[in-house]
Fold this sequence. Notes:
Layout: E1 5-9, E2 15-19, E3 25-30, H1 31-34, E4 47-48, E5 67-70, E6 81-83, H2 84-92, H3 96-104, E7 114-117, E8 124-125, E9 128-130, E10 137-139, H4 140-143, H5 159-164, H6 185-200
Antiparallel strand pairs: 1-2, 1-9, 2-3, 4-8, 5-6, 5-7, 9-10
Amino acid sequence: GKGAAVALAYPSQIVYDVMLRGGGEEKGLARSRLRLVCSTCLCDKKTFKPPPMYCEKCLAGIHQRWRYWDEARDDEIASVKLCNRCFTELRNCADPESAMIELVGRSVELGGFVERKEKDRPEFVDNWVQCEECHSWHHWVCALFKGEDTPEDTEWYCEPCRRNRSKTLPDELLVPPAAALPHTAMSRVLEEYVAQELQQAQVTCE
């Protein structure tokens, strides 16, 4: 197979690498040059707040208005992040190098940390996938496309094309429905409560 055509966004800057059918590729395209609109949500850009961030030492969440210190690595190893108070404590302790080894299990130079603002972290921008049949583009999250977990030679079809052409998704692209999730005591209580509220409000599904 030739694989799905996708557009991948970089979290640090909003540019895309576009993999085209037949093996072609265009790198570093700005979002304005893509001229794409998602055929599912009808929006050109879908952004998400970055996940919460925690201090490596005190484990407290770093608030949006706070400043923090980042190891600022450019490799695959997760960088150490410290709140301002913990960074100051470590920098002023008797043996900062030993303290960091004990904290994160490797040698870390506090002198290489960069002060940042939590609110300045870039938003996460969704990637794109193209339908093999109608060539429409869709955000990964709108299409329930598994992205990096999908083999490169897997072709993808949008929901309308799958219905019209009687196509089915390959097993590696199937997303289990909510009904397939395992139950817990809490989930059963919540479902029963919601069902009662809907019944009292005379809300029905057709």
